[in-house]
């Protein structure tokens, strides 16, 4: 990583730690005041997007010692709002408001912070709108739909000086932090390669069919910044990940974000200088899946290091010993690390240390969640209060996310390309056509 970028990251993360919530205890009822610890530090939160990631937020919001009040549950699907309210009722003793349109939440001055768990195409635009409205933001991975959005979101964080954490929760994993520190201190000599992998057994997905919009769904608001299209039966729920590029970022964005971030963290690299991919749809050739389900990507860096991404969405072959993880190779040894453990090997392949974590963080299960996510969200709360440094500042997270975008672009234009390691720009005209995307008029993200 260049010294200029290191200085930049140090400044923005230090600045984020100094931002604190102010005035959120005004106008409280006696009942509310009695429910919290230190009223002047209470954080009023809203959750945008109440799908499969919802369960990850029960604990950090429900634990009274975190001094958080959930003001809103927001989703464009009525049934999602009702389900979320019922499930949260087991973790909190009050009722948050249910809302369809997140713009009303952003306009509410009582809201201090939002958790953005919407589909990928809403991550950066929604986060930027929230920042402009004076809110702190926790934005789930991948954080952006394209490279232009990454730049805009980092610029928005700086401009509005709010605390923005990216949801790559392994940055808050104790055993991962421990082994990454050891790697940086030379425990495996000079690291030269990292292999990030994800393996799942996803089955067939339905071919999209044009049908009337499902009852209770605000289809126009679901699409938001994406160009308008007719509603198809399977497009509003999880399968939007695989139905083209309107809403999703494929498996690289859906899951590769996490392991690629660990790989870059371990190697201490910034933008790669080149990307090449071998990718395609290898399974269920006639189903509704519209992009690659198998990818092997290679990212080369200036300091003679390399990161590989091996993503296999629909074959359960256990190549590396687990559904997901990262292997870091060094001149004197290697490390395997995933969400539950790390294993340290010497240069001869002999196991030196096996650190089994007590983490209950989900691996390849839909939705995920667990103590790692809880710690990551709490780290964001403490960053908002000015009591700690963010583990995954958005400026850091979106550098890792660039590898996701580069791999997707290389797949879409069917060729690799070189990259400017300072600006992140792609040295290919076809690639640069995908630096941004086409937006629905009036929905373009702006500062």
Notes on the protein architecture:
- The chain is built from 13 helices and 15 strands.
- With 447 residues, the protein is of the alpha/beta class.
- The chain has two domains: 168 residues, Rossmann fold, CATH 3.40.50; 210 residues, Dihydrodipicolinate Reductase, domain 2.
- The chain has a nine-stranded mixed sheet. The protein has a six-stranded parallel sheet with strand order 3-2-1-4-5-6, with helices on both faces.
- β5, α7 and β6 form a beta-alpha-beta unit.
- α8 crosses α10.
- The chain is globular and about 60 Å long.
Any chance you could write out the topology, listing elements then pairs?
Elements: H1 3-17, H2 30-35, E1 43-48, H3 58-62, E2 68-74, H4 78-88, E3 97-99, H5 102-106, E4 113-116, H6 123-132, E5 136-139, H7 147-160, E6 164-166, H8 174-184, E7 191-199, H9 219-223, H10 250-267, E8 274-280, E9 294-300, E10 306-312, E11 324-330, E12 333-337, E13 341-346, E14 351-356, H11 371-384, H12 394-413, E15 417-418, H13 429-432
Parallel strand pairs: 1-2, 1-4, 2-3, 4-5, 5-6, 7-10
Antiparallel strand pairs: 7-11, 8-9, 8-15, 9-10, 11-12, 12-13, 13-14
Specify the biggest β-sheet. 9 strands, mixed
Order of strands in the sheet with most strands: 14-13-12-11-7-10-9-8-15
Helix content: 25-40%
| Beta strands, count | 15
Rg, alpha carbons: 21 Å
* Overall pLDDT metric: 91
Shape: globular
Looking at this structure, what is the CATH superfamily of the largest domain? Dihydrodipicolinate Reductase, domain 2
Tally of helical runs: 13
């Amino acid at each position: 990583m260049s010294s200029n970028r290191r200085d930049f990251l140090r400044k923005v993360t230090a600045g984020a730690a100094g931002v604190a919530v102010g005035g959120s205890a005004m106008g409280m009822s006696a009942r509310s005041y009695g429910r919290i610890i230190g009223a002047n530090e209470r954080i009023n939160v809203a959750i945008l997007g109440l799908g499969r990631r919802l369960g990850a937020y029960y604990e950090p919001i429900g634990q009274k010692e975190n001094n958080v009040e959930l003001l809103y549950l927001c989703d464009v699907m009525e049934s999602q709002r009702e389900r979320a309210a019922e499930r949260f009722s087991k973790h909190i003793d009050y009722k948050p408001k249910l809302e369809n349109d997140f713009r009303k939440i952003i306009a509410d001055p009582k809201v201090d912070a939002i958790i953005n768990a919407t589909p990928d195409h809403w991550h950066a635009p929604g986060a930027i709108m929230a920042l402009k409205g004076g809110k702190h933001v926790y934005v789930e991975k991948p954080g952006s739909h394209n490279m232009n959005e990454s730049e805009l979101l980092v610029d928005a964080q700086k401009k509005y000086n709010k605390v923005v954490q990216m949801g790559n929760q392994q940055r808050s994993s104790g055993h991962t932090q421990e082994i990454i520190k050891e790697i940086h201190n030379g425990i495996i000599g000079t690291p030269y390669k990292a292999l990030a992998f994800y393996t799942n057994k996803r089955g067939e997905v339905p071919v999209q069919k044009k049908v009337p919009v499902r009852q209770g769904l605000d289809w126009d608001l679901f699409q938001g910044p994406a160009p308008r299209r007719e509603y198809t039966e399977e497009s509003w729920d999880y399968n939007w990940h695989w139905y083209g590029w309107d809403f999703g970022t494929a498996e690289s964005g859906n899951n590769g974000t996490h392991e690629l971030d660990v790989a870059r963290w371990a190697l201490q690299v910034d933008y790669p200088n080149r990307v090449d991919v071998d990718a395609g749809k290898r399974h269920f050739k006639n189903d509704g899946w519209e992009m690659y389900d198998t990818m092997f990507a290679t990212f080369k860096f200036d300091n003679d290091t390399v990161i590989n991404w091996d993503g296999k969405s629909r074959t359960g072959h256990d190549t590396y010993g687990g559904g997901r993880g990262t292997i870091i190779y060094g001149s004197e040894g290697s490390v395997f690390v995933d969400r539950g453990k790390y294993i340290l090997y010497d240069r001869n392949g002999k196991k030196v240390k096996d650190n089994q974590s007590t983490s209950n963080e989900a691996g390849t299960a839909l939705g995920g969640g667990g103590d790692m996510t809880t710690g990551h969200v709490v780290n964001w709360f403490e960053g908002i209060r000015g009591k700690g440094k963010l583990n995954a500042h958005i400026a850091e997270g979106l550098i890792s996310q660039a590898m996701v975008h580069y791999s997707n672009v290389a797949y879409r234009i069917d060729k690799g390309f070189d990259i400017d390691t300072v600006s992140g720009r792609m040295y290919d005209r076809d690639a640069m056509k995908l630096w941004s995307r086409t937006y629905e008029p009036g929905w373009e993200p702006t500062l």
